[in-house]
Amino acid sequence: MQTSPFDLSGKVAIVTGGNGGIGLGMARGLAEAGAAVAVVGRNEAKSIAAVAELQQRGAKAVSVVADVTDKAAVAVMVERVRRELGRVDILVNNAGINIRKPPHALSLEEWESVMKTNLTSAFLCSQAVHPAMKEAGHGKIINIGSMMSIFGAGFAPAYAASKGGIVQFTRSCAVAWAADNIQVNAVLPGWIDTDLTKRARVEIDGLHERVLARTPAARWGAIADFAGIAVFLSSPASDFVTGTAIPVDGGYSIMG
């Protein structure tokens, strides 16, 4: 019997920052499509809660505490996932932070913290899973960028730089690893209703109204909006899609 091109049964996914927000939305989608999911994060309590929810949905899931900015910790994390779940087919690089300050007010330590969490972690995790994916003869990597990969943002220079870097890193990996049958793509979220953007609505006057006015869908995104794109980019349905950066933003980025 022919299986669905979106079927992830028997696949194993690592989702960094998968215990909340967009990462959890993607983890839910992957689990519902049949994948086993390793939820990776620094907040063990949140990760355990996320894993319990995925297990209640019938999925196989494990929690892994790891600092994804540390090369040694990433190596241990990947080895543990391979040992406990048997393989690694999918990596979602979703870990991210933001510090909202204009460039002249941002300290070097703040800049480096954002770059390490948002960009260096994607490099370390991608590099760490590559041998397993190459050995298996296939793999899918999804890097989480942002609409700040496209637009300037005076209040988020480090975040914007890191997310612009994510797009170029995605393209580089897509070219380098195409011969290994590894597809690498980026997702660019728009304004999504998460804990991070709740803070933004407090810190940036009028943000809520401006987002609604510019977004053709006339709403903020929900984390559930990322389940489908995660399944598509992780499944055989996207085997000829690589190096792309796909906005998931309700049309925000097409408005003048």
Q: State the CATH class.
A: Alpha Beta
| Low-pLDDT ranges | none
In the CATH classification, which architecture applies? 3-Layer(aba) Sandwich
Q: Proportion of β residues?
A: 5-15%
Distance between the termini: 48 Å
**Helix- and strand-based class?**
alpha/beta
Radius of gyration of CA atoms, rounded to a whole number: 17 Å
User: What's the total number of strands?
Assistant: 7
Notable features of this structure?
alpha/beta; globular; 256 residues; Rossmann fold; 7-stranded parallel beta sheet
Account of the protein in words:
The model has no long low-confidence stretch (mean pLDDT 96). This protein has one domain: Rossmann fold, CATH 3.40.50. The radius of gyration is 17 Å and the shape is globular. It is built from eight helices and seven strands, in the order E-H-E-H-E-H-E-H-E-H-E-H-H-H-E. The chain is an alpha/beta fold and 256 residues long. Helices cover 45% and strands 15% of the residues. Strands 3-2-1-4-5-6-7 form a seven-stranded parallel sheet, sandwiched between helices. Helix 1 crosses helix 8, helix 3 packs parallel to helix 4 and helix 4 runs parallel beside helix 5.
